[in-house]
Amino acid sequence: MPAASLVQGEADAAVSGVTHDSRRVAAGDLFVAIPGENHDARRFVADALARGAAGVVTEGPVDVPDGTVVIRVPSTRAALADFAAAVYGPSPERLRLIGVTGTDGKTTTTHMIHAVLEAHGERSGRLSTVGMTAGDGAPPAGFGFTTPEAGDLHRMLAGMADAGCTTAVTEVSSHALALQRVRGCAFQVAVFTNLTPEHLDFHGSMPEYAAAKAKLFAMVAQKSPDGFGVVNADDPASAVMRQHGPRRILSYGIENDADVRAVDIRCEPDRTTFTLTTPWGDQEIVSVIPGRVNVYNWLAAAATTLGLGVPLEAIRAAAEVTTVDGRLESIDCGQPFKVFVDFAHTPHALATVLRTVRPQTKNRLMVLFGHAGGRDAANRAPMGAVAAGLADVVMVTADNPLHEDPAAIAEEILVGAREREGATGDVSVNVDRREALRALVARAEPGDTIVLAGKGHERYQALAEGKVEWNDADEARLALAARGWTTPRSESAEAGRRGAVPQQRAASDGPAEASRVTATPGRKPGGGAS
Ligand SMILES: CC(=O)N[C@H]1[C@@H](OP(=O)(O)OP(=O)(O)OC[C@H]2O[C@@H](n3ccc(=O)[nH]c3=O)[C@H](O)[C@@H]2O)O[C@H](CO)[C@@H](O)[C@@H]1O[C@H](C)C(=O)N[C@@H](C)C(=O)N[C@H](CCC(=O)O)C(=O)O
Ligand SMILES: Nc1ncnc2c1ncn2[C@@H]1O[C@H](COP(=O)(O)OP(=O)(O)OP(=O)(O)O)[C@@H](O)[C@H]1O
């Protein structure tokens, strides 16, 4: 720990936990008062002490009663991680740590690695944007972060080890690396997916963004002499990861030469098959997560697990059953068109998902998306351009606008959509996500594909007035039910074989609505979502 000094109080005070949030202090916790962007948490010290904090860690003077334990440190974020690692941190012998970083594909790759380890019979923990699981059958607990703050992270990892996990695979965001949330974690494997522009308002530039990601590789090099890195041979930013990484590097790719490759890739609407070629042998893979992009994610997961000594068979078995909530999640209520929910919220991811579903789309490709407030404004026009260039019908709506005006965000998206050469011009705006979704479903005809992008697994929408319950998959099912489709095609077919009458479109439904959706750019957000 860098130069901590005890300013007052007993040096041997007992500490049972560590937290950075006064509202979550339990008796015996050490409260680390971080000077944040919005608040200097020293103003919450009295609150923390009233809740029973065992002491306070700060970068500057605090006004506290005599006898209160006060520890002064040069960096409270570093201290939060160091104290949390000391109080909770499972040793590398107890828990092997795998970190996955990159712009897109972290959650999916994290889930795939976890699934392969479990298919191999290895009890593993998993921490991702979707939530945390300790391999004990309990449903994942969500926490609204990709990588939580250090106190929570070390406590969750300890919980995994206590639950009998021998390995933990965690998503590591660039924010986490820049803000020292993973400091003190002894990663044995660092995995890199890809790098495209995102979070540049936080990191400043692409080289700085790459450097933040490369910290994960540097951590393996420094802490784990037997560890290794996994890089994407088809992404030039892998050179930065290699430069900072450990000696042992495994590469994966489709286009370029790599240790682990996919050949003979066959993309079908609901699955992708390919031959995995590796130094450990070849294996036919059938992935039930469709799309070429998920071949990359499987390659990253395969290189990681093969590098750890897991057999090819476990990868084959995991690929046949693994899906991830809100990642190319197919919504099937028996309707004669496809509906996918996907978490794509960057221009690159949006382009990827639209290109993925285009070949299987017999009629029109329709996309609904918006952009989050308070971040990455530079991505808004490019997302408009991507959608207008790759989809036939574009519906711009609200994502998580937070304190920003969703109509103004939509206008920024439209700038890109309008400038797109060769775009169809079928672009509408409705910032009420429920109305927008229903309008798109109402227009869908046989052979169309609808992509509901940006919110993936999320179960809320963050509006200026607070969070309201929302889930794209549930809302899509409701919209389909309103048109009379409630039974998945597989079940309808089964019922049909048994002689039952499969549930069909409501008689009153009539032919698919062909009229254009009216643009309502000034509408108040989320009115229908509460
Ligand atoms: C930009 C960023 O990461 N900000 C983080 C930062 O916020 P901040 O500096 O504004 O904190 P602040 O609100 O000023 O508060 C300062 C301190 O006072 C404390 N506090 C505050 C109020 C109170 O009553 N009591 C109290 O103790 C807070 O817990 C905090 O420690 O420190 C806070 C806690 O220390 C984080 O919760 C917060 O994450 C915010 C919520 C966030 O949205 N972060 C996102 C951008 C993020 O981290 N995303 C990544 C990547 C996602 C991706 O892959 O796309 C992620 O890993 O999730
Ligand atoms: N390897 C990939 N390359 C490009 N796009 C991808 C890749 N994998 C997934 N995507 C797209 O990005 C979206 C987000 O995927 P995923 O959640 O796995 O990434 P992520 O890096 O975890 O994102 P976040 O950190 O924002 O949660 C997917 O819904 C899909 O559209």
TrEMBL record:
<comment type="similarity">
    <text>Belongs to the MurCDEF family. MurE subfamily.</text>
</comment>
<keyword id="KW-0963">Cytoplasm</keyword>
<keyword id="KW-0067">ATP-binding</keyword>
<dbReference type="InterPro" id="IPR036565">
    <property type="entry name" value="Mur-like_cat_sf"/>
</dbReference>
<feature type="region of interest" description="Disordered">
    <location>
        <begin position="482"/>
        <end position="530"/>
    </location>
</feature>
<dbReference type="Pfam" id="PF01225">
    <property type="entry name" value="Mur_ligase"/>
</dbReference>
<dbReference type="InterPro" id="IPR004101">
    <property type="entry name" value="Mur_ligase_C"/>
</dbReference>
<dbReference type="GO" id="GO:0008360">
    <property type="term" value="P:regulation of cell shape"/>
</dbReference>
<dbReference type="InterPro" id="IPR005761">
    <property type="entry name" value="UDP-N-AcMur-Glu-dNH2Pim_ligase"/>
</dbReference>
<feature type="binding site">
    <location>
        <position position="22"/>
    </location>
    <ligand>
        <name>UDP-N-acetyl-alpha-D-muramoyl-L-alanyl-D-glutamate</name>
    </ligand>
</feature>
<feature type="binding site">
    <location>
        <begin position="146"/>
        <end position="147"/>
    </location>
    <ligand>
        <name>UDP-N-acetyl-alpha-D-muramoyl-L-alanyl-D-glutamate</name>
    </ligand>
</feature>
<keyword id="KW-0436">Ligase</keyword>
<dbReference type="GO" id="GO:0016881">
    <property type="term" value="F:acid-amino acid ligase activity"/>
</dbReference>
<dbReference type="GO" id="GO:0005737">
    <property type="term" value="C:cytoplasm"/>
</dbReference>
<feature type="binding site">
    <location>
        <begin position="102"/>
        <end position="108"/>
    </location>
    <ligand>
        <name>ATP</name>
    </ligand>
</feature>
<keyword id="KW-0961">Cell wall biogenesis/degradation</keyword>
<feature type="domain" description="Mur ligase central">
    <location>
        <begin position="100"/>
        <end position="304"/>
    </location>
</feature>
<dbReference type="InterPro" id="IPR036615">
    <property type="entry name" value="Mur_ligase_C_dom_sf"/>
</dbReference>
<dbReference type="GO" id="GO:0051301">
    <property type="term" value="P:cell division"/>
</dbReference>
<feature type="binding site">
    <location>
        <position position="173"/>
    </location>
    <ligand>
        <name>UDP-N-acetyl-alpha-D-muramoyl-L-alanyl-D-glutamate</name>
    </ligand>
</feature>
<keyword id="KW-0547">Nucleotide-binding</keyword>
<keyword id="KW-0573">Peptidoglycan synthesis</keyword>
<keyword id="KW-0131">Cell cycle</keyword>
<dbReference type="InterPro" id="IPR013221">
    <property type="entry name" value="Mur_ligase_cen"/>
</dbReference>
<protein>
    <recommendedName>
        <fullName>UDP-N-acetylmuramyl-tripeptide synthetase</fullName>
        <ecNumber>6.3.2.-</ecNumber>
    </recommendedName>
</protein>
<dbReference type="InterPro" id="IPR000713">
    <property type="entry name" value="Mur_ligase_N"/>
</dbReference>
<comment type="function">
    <text>Catalyzes the addition of an amino acid to the nucleotide precursor UDP-N-acetylmuramoyl-L-alanyl-D-glutamate (UMAG) in the biosynthesis of bacterial cell-wall peptidoglycan.</text>
</comment>
<dbReference type="GO" id="GO:0005524">
    <property type="term" value="F:ATP binding"/>
</dbReference>
<dbReference type="Pfam" id="PF08245">
    <property type="entry name" value="Mur_ligase_M"/>
</dbReference>
<feature type="modified residue" description="N6-carboxylysine">
    <location>
        <position position="213"/>
    </location>
</feature>
<dbReference type="GO" id="GO:0009252">
    <property type="term" value="P:peptidoglycan biosynthetic process"/>
</dbReference>
<dbReference type="GO" id="GO:0071555">
    <property type="term" value="P:cell wall organization"/>
</dbReference>
<keyword id="KW-0133">Cell shape</keyword>
<feature type="binding site">
    <location>
        <position position="181"/>
    </location>
    <ligand>
        <name>UDP-N-acetyl-alpha-D-muramoyl-L-alanyl-D-glutamate</name>
    </ligand>
</feature>
<dbReference type="Pfam" id="PF02875">
    <property type="entry name" value="Mur_ligase_C"/>
</dbReference>
<dbReference type="InterPro" id="IPR035911">
    <property type="entry name" value="MurE/MurF_N"/>
</dbReference>
<keyword id="KW-0132">Cell division</keyword>
<keyword id="KW-0460">Magnesium</keyword>
<dbReference type="GO" id="GO:0000287">
    <property type="term" value="F:magnesium ion binding"/>
</dbReference>
<comment type="pathway">
    <text>Cell wall biogenesis; peptidoglycan biosynthesis.</text>
</comment>
<feature type="domain" description="Mur ligase C-terminal">
    <location>
        <begin position="326"/>
        <end position="456"/>
    </location>
</feature>
<feature type="domain" description="Mur ligase N-terminal catalytic">
    <location>
        <begin position="15"/>
        <end position="88"/>
    </location>
</feature>
